[in-house]
Structures
1.
Amino acid sequence: MDFLAHIYLLRRRGLLILFTALIISLLGTFFLTGTFTQDDKDDKSWQGTVFISLGTDQNNLESSTTLDNVTAADQFTETVQGWFKNPNLINRINENFDQGISFNARRQEKQNLVITYSFNSVENTLNDQITEHIKTELQNDIEEYNANTNSAFEIALFQTNVEQVFPSETKIILIIVMAAFAIGLFIAYAYEYIMGIVSFPWQISGLLRKRFFAKFVLKKSELRNQNKAYITSLLNQTSATRNQIIAMNINSADLENLAKSIEKSVIIHFPDQIDELDQKATLIVLAKIGSTTVANLEKIKATIKERFILVMTY
């Protein structure tokens, strides 16, 4: 991937991209903000939390010590954590409600469990029903487990909490802005594609079926120093007494500075000066990303065939 092609697209089509991104961001933010405001009036999202501590009923245990009971309860906590992956338990809780509620249980130090779940409701009163069914179904399963294993586990502590979950407006706006920028970038590329302007190096080399002899950045401020030496060295590598540089859709300001940098070469404006081509000279096709057109590349290919050196500039 040629990152320079993307960078220079931002430079030459920056206003188009920013304008598109701004309009889409404003419309998206206005629409989604209004949507979330209306949803908050009708239905709200809630996050419920249940904190459970498990222990053992020592009155029903004769020979075990306190340490044994703590160790057993600690191990039993992992068992109960696994129960919340049991579809039977989840279904027994959910059959009392008109929405599917998913549960997540995680162990929190020794005999403690933290169970989290989400639900939608106008008010949080539904949470009381949910937690009551969690406690009831859990107690039933613990009693059944005790009966089958001759144990005496019990719920020692059961506490609940619920809070409303608000959509993160900052994240939503950030996503909208990023999407708007991506759409602006797409529109900029689409504009160049529709107008027949090359946006990537591979378009030039693919159309002309030539590898680049060189690539460089055509900066006005550097033409008389860094680029001058670079371009001169390129021309020296051609071992030719005469060079004609065929400028493909390069603006006058860039060409004026380029001419000052390479005094011994003749610059041909294509297609305006096509009649001045010297077939005996070394022809250097200079194509510029974001300026050269596909139509002119096809014309130059038909005019000079394959007898040329391909140089690209950003």
Note: The first strand starts at residue 44 and ends at 56.
2.
Amino acid sequence: MAETQHTSVLNEYARKDIENKARRLIRRAGFSRSDREDLEQELTLRLLERSALYDPSRASLNTFVVCVIRSGVANILRQEATKKRAAARFNTSLHAEHVPPPVVEPEQERNFARLEVREAVAGLAPELQSVCQRLMADPPSVVARELKVTSYQLQISIGHIRRHFARLGLKSF
């Protein structure tokens, strides 16, 4: 039965959407043309892995495909950004005088981050505070279900929250 589910999820619409997203990633995210096939394969694999989660009573097949692929693209972009950040940490000039960074205990750093996030959440509108607090504990799909909103409506709220955090200099949260 799982095999028929895989083939039904991987229909023509899904293949075209995967190709389109891979093409857009190549143009936008700094991937090369040689990465296209890998990106398509990664998105296809993600769709096939999540095919068991498809419930026809909740959404159409195409809606499920779009959500899974969109999530896969976001995950790929996050991984790429993480690689770039990690690489930037170790770039140093051989000509510059080495000044050791100030020592900050990891626990102290986490406490500062928690405080900044707490203050940022407090500055949100009450309905966005609720969404933000729920997202800190649960994945978006669970939050959308609890709030009885569509994933699109939740994404709009998340966009407002992200912009608020970015204005406060908390882009990475």
Note: The CA atoms of residues 23 and 74 lie 14 Å apart.
3.
Amino acid sequence: MAFLGLFLSAFTWAAPAEVTVQPQDQILLRGLNAQVIYNAAPGGATLHIKGLSEAGWTMSKREGVVALDGPEGDSRRVLSAQLKDHGSRPLIEISGPSVPIEIHLREGHITLNKGAQDARVHLKNGRVTSVGRGGPLKISLLKGDVSISDQSGRVDVDVYQGNLTVRNMQGDGELQLFSGQLWLDQSRGNVAINMNSGSGKVQSFSGTLQIDNVKAALSGSKLSGRIEGFSAEGPLNLQIAGESDIHLKTQSARVNLQLPPASGASLNLLTNEGEIIVPKEVGVLRTHLEKTARGRLRGEGGKVTVFVRSQEGSILVK
């Protein structure tokens, strides 16, 4: 019986840790490798945290900071062992009221569900998922994937290599992706996109879209609002669906714009070394220095204005 008791106790999960917090308190989580889930819910004043003791993590609270710290020691040895066996990655699950949270991990999977306070994530390799948050969100990721949906607070994301997906964002943000694939879908606000290489797609967007691009291929559909920015080499293929003010500059990048039918758009286009292709009602003036097209398309005026300047790229408007 004594042996049976020891056997059962070895497989008994420890009770969740609990800590009382105030709205101004914050969570600071630091470790090498972990799966972290934070389920924030309105009301209450107690955080429930599962998985700490099983994984050798500790919790302390001092001056309003709830510190969750992973095991210390030889980080390379510990991390190497964890990577060889993904089942050894500890699961830290936090539930309770929404308070600011800051996470620092070398490797991991992070899920943030709801929450009206600041969330900051610093991750070297892994995946970050955020759903239904109203508070500001800031993510820094060296390599991996970021997925954000149903976000109403400001978003600032910086990914060096990977995939960045944002759906149904209502608010402002800056999306930086050095290399990989970006998708912004069904969103509105003031959003800046900064890309170096890869591909990007923007769909069903309204508001202000700012583009700073080197050589990524960027496409957009069902766009309205103000679209502005610069692309060095990466082509821009944009389909405009509503009232819009377009102001673009490129080095050698090709610009392809599809405007609404009978838009009455006002065009002001210039390229030094590329070509200009526009509907026949707007003429193209060619000189030995540049090609220009200025005029208005058929339809009701005042809804769409297009200003494009390029050094070497061609401009196509239809």
Note: Confidence is low (pLDDT under 50) at residues 1-12.
4.
Amino acid sequence: MSHRSIRHRVPAVLVALVVAVTAALVSPGPAQAAVQNNYLLNNGRYSAVGVGVWHDNHTGGYDGILPANRNTVDQWGWDHVSAFYIGTGYCADLFRTPAANPGTWTFVDTVSPGRTNLSYSYSYQIHPFTAPSC
């Protein structure tokens, strides 16, 4: 093989190596492959109040206010939600359905004002309403 033919093959090998390394960096690993696909629906059946929501589980203020009759997917395109906040003077009936296999909504509890943490295993629907106590 001549010196010239080896020199022309080096760029092709280099390109193949760069493509392989780039594909490995872009491909989802085990943590990225586990998609969290739950959502929160703020059902305005009894009250048109917005609720504070956290996209990721962190301390500090909520990430946004979800208006009545909206869900976190349509409002922000979120693939998950970790908590919501109901303000003073309100309560909320909380319902859930399995996130992986949605179906019938099951009543969970009536929640008081404050932060309510959610499981990624379920999608949730809340019905906020005004009340002096819950």
Note: Confidence is low (pLDDT under 50) at residues 1-35.
